[in-house]
Amino acid sequence: MIYIPVDTLDIYHNFALEYYLASEKRFSEPVFLLWSTTPTVMLGKYQDALAELNLEYIRQHHINVVRRYSGGGTIYTDEGGYQFTFIQPDTQQMIDFKAYINTIATALNQMQIPAIATSRNDLTVNDRKISGSAQYKHNGFTVHHGSLLFNTNLEQMYDALHVDNLKLRSKHIASILERTINIQTIRPDLTNQDFAADLQQHVLATVTNLRTYQLTPTDLARIKVIAKDKFQNSQFIYGHTPTTELSKKHYFKGGGLVKFDLTVKHGILTELHLSGDFFSSIDQYLLAKSLLGRPFRPDQVRPILIQQLQQQPILGISADDLLALLFS
Amino acid sequence: MLKEVHMPKLSPKSDEYFFGSWLKEPGDTVKTGDILFEVETDKVISEVQSQEDGVLKEQKVAEGDSTKVGDLVATIEVN
Questions:
Q1: Which of A64, A263, A314, A323 has a beta carbon 3.0–4.6 Å from A40's, enabling a disulfide?
Q2: pLDDT over threshold 80, residue A92
């Protein structure tokens, strides 16, 4: 096995590193990585960002949004969590999680963390999830990656992944809400650094013929290009879902009821209908005209809403109120 | 001659998959080993390769649909 130290918290770099190793570097031996991120939400490959993410909270808290090449549900990660990755040539087309999950479960148990693998290939302690895994198979290689909650900000996790849609219609993979727990509540004596060092040591102790590979400037240059082209690509992150039909409704105290019905195609707003009993001379047609055809994301919609409401205010309701309704 | 492409079994646990995306469109030339489409099952994204050389004739499953092992997915015109 090859161990590659990862010294950046940049999710776009780290996902690009995985992809580079599977698609271009293609070591014949398995590779193991252990890494972490700044606050980030990771969508599964075929998930709908509008169904899974509170994009307004994410904008306000400067949380990274990324789409994985692997399947499954949305997760939140930060410096209080660790990600593990195994990359190796396929031995069969059939999916297999067990070897990877068991390696991590065994290491955790040796660290007095009684982790159990579930039928969904999660790891739990006392029926609470501490780890989830997903895979993608690309060009004859399997990339298996998983997350571990050590002392992740669970409140921020909840807020970033909690979104209220009155109605939502799109063909996508929906996330499953599960009860989670941070590993540090089981091993409060461990710091983040202790945990990562112990886990790395226990995983690598199971390996024969271990060698460490340091990424070269040539590797890093390619990874940078892949990060930009694939993982930072806003079309891939937000424009992946063919069609989403959404309804959002909220009663604003002192402002009234506001309802939006909208359609988003590949991340672009294509239909918008505003209704309610608010007090305004806002021109529904002009509002729609100013927003249709643009990317449906808070940073794109916000300046237009501000401008529209400056011209035609809504009594007791601000542009940011509408933004929160549209994206929360 | 027209050859049928059927959904292979990819997961020991499940026979029903989420059809993710097409990587070849009708009229595209395909070679053995080219990736035809991608499916998701059990949190895994798998690529399915062509077993034929020819031209993709018809897509029988739409992106976002649910598909079962053995379903007719596509037809390929081979010489």
A1: A64
A2: no
The model's pLDDT over A37-67, given as tens digits with 9 standing for 90+, comes to 999 999 999 999 999 999 999 999 999 999 9
What domain count does chain A have?
2
> Are A70 and B44 inside 8 Å of each other by CB?
yes
Parent domain of A263: 243-327
Q: Cβ of B42 and A121 within 8 Å?
A: yes
Is some CB atom of chain B closer than 8 A to the CB atom of A44?
yes
Residues A273 and A136 in one domain: no
pLDDT at position A318 over 70: yes
Residue A73 has pLDDT above 90, yes or no: yes
Res A314 pLDDT > 80: yes
Interface test with A, best of B44, B50, B66 (most A CBs within 10 A): B44
SS (H, E, C) chain A: CEECCCCCCCHHHHHHHHHHHHHHHCCCCCEEEEECCCCEEEECCCCCHHHHCCHHHHHHCCCEEEECCCCCCCEEECCCEEEEEEEEECCCCCCCCHHHHHHHHHHHHHCCCCCEECCCCCEEECCEEEEEEEEEEECCEEEEEEEEECCCCHHHHHHHHCCCCCEEECCCCCCCCCCECCHHHCCCCCCHHHHHHHHHHHHHHCCCCCEECCCCHHHHHHHHHHHHHHHCCHHHHHCCCCEEEEEEEEEECCCEEEEEEEEEECCEEEEEEEEECCCECCCHHHHHHHHCCCECCHHHHHHHHHHHHHHCCECCECHHHHHHHHHC
Is A201 in the same domain as A313? no
Residues in chain A with CB shorter than 8 Å from the CB of B45 are 45-46, 69-71, 135-137
Domain CATH number, residue A252 = 3.30.390.50
Of A94, A121, A137, the CB nearest to B45: A137
Domain B2-77, CATH number (from 1.20.1730.10, 3.40.50.2000, 2.40.50.100, 3.40.50.720)? 2.40.50.100
Tell if the CB–CB gap between A137 and B12 is shorter than 8 Å: no
- Which residues from B are below 8 Å from A137, CB to CB? 44-47
In chain B, which residue's Cα lies nearest the Cα of A144? B44
Nearest C-alpha in A relative to B14: A95
Q: What is the mean pLDDT of residues B21-30?
A: 97
- Whether residues A77 and A179 share a domain: the answer is yes
**Whether pLDDT at A208 is above 90:** no
Is it the case that residue A98 has pLDDT exceeding 90? Answer: no
Structure ipTM: 0.92
